[in-house]
Amino acid sequence: MSHKQDSIKGTKGDVSSHDKTKSWFYSDIVKDHFFNPKNFLLNEVDESQYNGIGKVGSPACGDELRVWLKVDKETEKIQEFKWKTFGCGSAIASTSMASVMITENDGMTLTEARKLKPQLIMERLGGLPQRKFHCSVLCDKALRDAINDYYRRTEQFDKVVVEASRIIDPVSKVTDHDIEEAVLEGATTLEKVQQKTKVGTGNPSCLPAVEELIRFYKEKYFG
Q1: How confident is the model at residue 59, as a pLDDT?
Q2: What CATH number should be reported for the domain whose range is 167-222?
Q3: Which of 88, 135, 139, 206 is catalytic?
Q4: CA atoms of 221 and 223, how far apart (whole Å)
């Protein structure tokens, strides 16, 4: 079954828009990972068994993901990738597939895992509806957080990558993180990003930087 959008009013897919005018289908692979998630932790976690722990999101807003890595200190290969999430079906399927990709064939190294992009996970899943793409990025961010945690635990501070936000528009207080989130939610043009964030409406001088960030995030997440 295709993940393509079915825009005919009144049709019913696997997920529908709030106004019920559009619906989307998930691939069979996505459904399998949703109904039979791989490496998912059902019980309480003994965190002493893991040497890389990451978290992204907040349960208060409905989306939170935690991951636990067991990394071989000699090879820095990821031997185990366990996870829990309060996210939607797309977040569950994406994280399940990521856990498989990262641990298959004796496991990726931390360096290789850092290069795993959300679009590669989507390809293995057979695609996701565009409106659900931002959910798949949860596992990417939680994974990078866990990798940083491993490097801090092993005192390899030079390998920690800090992803701090910076203010792009001092007037509207819009940050690069705000623009990233807007792109992930489907705002892939300057006009659409401005509609979501109001960036540059009172400070047009920042717009070249905004356009550069839009290009950067489109390439990063969509290839």
Answers
A1: 54
A2: 1.10.10.1100
A3: 135
A4: 6
Q: How far is CA 103 from CA 165, 175, 178, in A?
A: 31, 34, 32
* Residue 61 bears catalytic tag: yes
Pairing of strands 174-175, 167-169: antiparallel
Q: Where do the domains of the chain lie?
A: 5-159, 167-222
CATH classification (class only), 5-159? alpha beta
Instruction: List average pLDDT for each run of 10 residues in the chain, which is 223 residues long.
Output: 39 49 71 93 90 80 83 98 87 93 97 91 83 73 94 94 85 90 89 94 94 92 75
Q: What are residue 16's phi and psi, to 5 degrees?
A: -125, 155
Question: Which H or E run includes 30?
Answer: helix 28-35
Catalytic annotation on 135?
yes
Q: What's at 120, amino acid-wise?
A: L
**H/E segment holding residue 82:** strand 78-85
